[in-house]
Write a structure and sequence with these properties.
With 565 residues, the chain is of the alpha+beta class. The chain is built from 15 helices and 24 strands. A hairpin with a 5-residue loop joins β9 and β10. Bound molecules: flavin-adenine dinucleotide.
């Protein structure tokens, strides 16, 4: 693909062009549509994924799907495939010894911190659900259509796309382009964005099979992912409901001291695949049918930049990682959630384009950490011969899922802030840069989560004595800011009286939460001029002006007027 091209015939105009319609591209389309942004997606394939790939989805992924009304639909579909409280363990083989339990119950302890849940589900079942939600919300998706080339200038991106059936090419002019075109991203390459990391670490294969014997061996085992670790094969297994079919992802086989013998992707035949699956099942003469063998590359790399001009890399185009830990697709979905509201506010003329720079600033450090954490889990769970001492220590799964700590011009950090990319979500308590805590609220007899308030606008949450904040929001009359009172008649009931404690403020304080549910700023108690304080904070965030650390910013609010809030 070239990073230039020419315009032929009629040019179609669209605010955002999305390249790639797999898990992450579809999520971008859905989140942007939910923000009211018109998009056009092009995807080379004729439809959504046909291979299971991702299966382990994080709490945060369900939280962001909940924000676009997908939680119940996804939960029901996931429960048809797996139980929500399945776990992850390592065994010698299905018939052999249990070696370790990594996660006994995927959803243990989740209720206390989230309105959502983790889930196991095949990627090929999840994608159509996101696709249909995106289409319901107005996204346009063109399958069997590929991006051929693109060029960008000061005002937009001009792309040449081709209908693969007719061979017809046409031009699309977009204000911004999102590259969700996977780990071998042609867009990334055309932009000359390098990747760095551990590189290619294994030539892997996924073997799909049917094995009735597995049903007996899996009886009473509540496992969504089963790592296999024996002298013949190292990888992981996922069984379908009923446990008579599944797939085995194989990272290494045979003697790991001789890397050439473990280059399974080059040498595999149906007979070798059968031997490998039998070794994983642990029954040497088991009747097993091999239905498909798919080679893939295990890579641990991050792009050096997540954006260039008007083009943004998301998902595997930005970071490719081993599947261990189940981070890859999840991180990609969450990339697009971070980007969508920023693009929406810029396209609406409410925020400065500088806000878009915070996408790289917030997501890249996290992506780099996640790639390394996936690698650390890969080495520990599957490839210890690579040397555990060469890996980063494991970061707790809670921190990895809901403990993200952003620092950028779209966050007004507090002075005692550390520089870590992740934090313990049980202790973050409304600290700017972290995910706003979940709180059970009630109004007019209806129970909801505080997360349900964070959709298209900034929300200022204030406590029982926060009337001056509410008045300040009213006087400010910003189209992107609303106020919510917690724990007062007329506001939301907080029956556990947990708001102040969870969000780290006094009853006179206030917390500003972004549309993606991250805390942008808080005043721990009342301030002298709340309207001015808010105007300054919002102005800084929307104009993405460099923010000095320190409590309530001063200033005159000029930046706010400049961008028309
Ligand atoms: C065995 C396995 C297990 C995994 N398990 C998990 C897991 O449990 N949890 C998890 O989160 N992740 C998991 N992953 C990772 C996950 O599958 C990927 O991270 C995810 O698919 C990335 O999605 P994506 O949309 O960024 O890229 P892809 O899925 O690679 O999609 C890119 C799309 O772009 C299209 N495309 C490329 N170029 C063009 C072009 N020029 N024009 C038009 N279209 C184009 C391609 O056709 C493709 O459909 C697993 C991966 C594997 C291999």
């Amino acid at each position: 693909m070239s990073h230039s091209g020419s315009v032929h015939g009629d040019v179609e105009e669209v605010p955002v062009l999305i390249v790639g319609g797999s898990l992450v591209g579809l999520s971008a389309a859905a989140f942007l549509a939910a923000q009211g942004v018109e998009t056009l997606s092009v995807e080379r394939h004729r439809g959504t994924a046909i291979h299971p790939r991702a299966g382990h989805f994080q709490l945060r992924t369900m939280e962001v799907l909940r924000a676009i009304g997908l939680q119940d639909i996804v939960r029901r579909a996931a429960e048809e495939q797996y139980d929500l409280d399945f776990g992850i363990a390592a065994v010698e083989s299905l018939a052999g010894r249990e070696l370790a339990v990594f996660i006994p119950n995927l959803n243990e302890g989740v209720d206390a911190v989230s309105p959502s849940m983790r889930f196991f589900m095949t990627q090929q079942s999840l994608e159509p659900l996101i696709r249909s939600r995106a289409e319901q919300l107005g996204a346009r998706l063109c399958y069997a259509t590929e991006l051929r080339s693109f060029e960008q200038d000061g005002d937009g991106v001009t792309a040449t796309i081709r209908d693969l059936d007719s061979g017809r090419e046409r031009s699309v002019r977009a204000r911004y382009m999102i590259a969700s075109d996977g780990n071998r991203s042609g867009v990334r390459e055309a932009l000359g964005i390098a990747v760095k990391g551990r590189g290619l670490i294994a030539h892997s294969v996924t073997i799909y099979f049917r094995a009735d014997v597995a049903a007996r061996l899996m009886e009473n085992r509540r496992l969504g992912v089963i790592y296999i670790n024996n002298p013949v094969v190292r990888g992981f297994l996922r069984m379908d409901k009923g446990n008579r079919s599944g797939f085995l992802a194989v990272n290494t086989v045979g003697d790991t001291a001789r890397p050439e013998s473990s280059r399974i992707a080059d040498t595999i035949t149906p007979q070798i695949a059968l031997d490998i699956v039998r070794a994983a099942v642990g029954v040497p003469d088991a009747a097993i049918e091999i239905t498909q063998i798919i080679p893939w590359r295990t890579v641990a790399d991050s792009a050096e930049r997540y954006s260039q001009g008007r083009v943004f890399l998301v998902g595997d185009a930005a970071h490719t990682m081993p599947p261990n830990g189940g981070f890859g697709g999840n991180t990609g979905v969450q990339d697009t959630h971070n980007l969508a509201w920023k693009l929406a506010l810029v396209l609406r003329g409410i925020a400065s384009p500088r806000l878009l720079e915070t996408y790289d600033g917030e997501r890249r450090p996290l992506g780099t950490l996640t790639v390394e954490q996936a690698y650390s889990r890969y080495v520990r769970r599957t490839a210890p011969h690579l040397g555990i001492e060469t890996t980063e220590p494991l970061v707790d799964d809670w921190n990895m899922e809901i403990g993200h700590h952003y620092r950028s011009t779209a966050i007004l950090s507090e002075p005692e802030d550390s520089a870590q990319v992740h934090t313990d979500p049980f202790k973050s308590r409304g600290r700017p840069g972290t995910r706003a805590p979940h709180l059970v609220l009630e109004r007019a007899g209806k129970r909801l989560s505080s997360h349900d308030l964070y959709l298209r606008n900034f929300v200022l949450l204030c406590g029982a004595d926060g009337e001056p904040w509410v008045e300040a929001v009213e006087r400010l009359a910003s189209p992107v800011l609303t106020a919510e009172r917690i724990g007062t008649p007329g506001g939301f009931r907080d029956s556990a009286n947990a708001f102040g404690e969870s969000y780290g403020i006094a009853s006179t304080g206030a917390v500003l939460v972004r549309p993606d549910g991250f805390v942008a700023w808080r005043a721990k108690a009342a301030v002298a001029r709340p309207q001015e304080a808010l105007a300054n904070v919002l102005g800084r965030i929307l104009s993405a002006a460099p923010a000095a650390t320190g409590g309530t910013p001063g200033g005159t609010g000029d930046s706010l007027r400049e961008i028309g809030v």
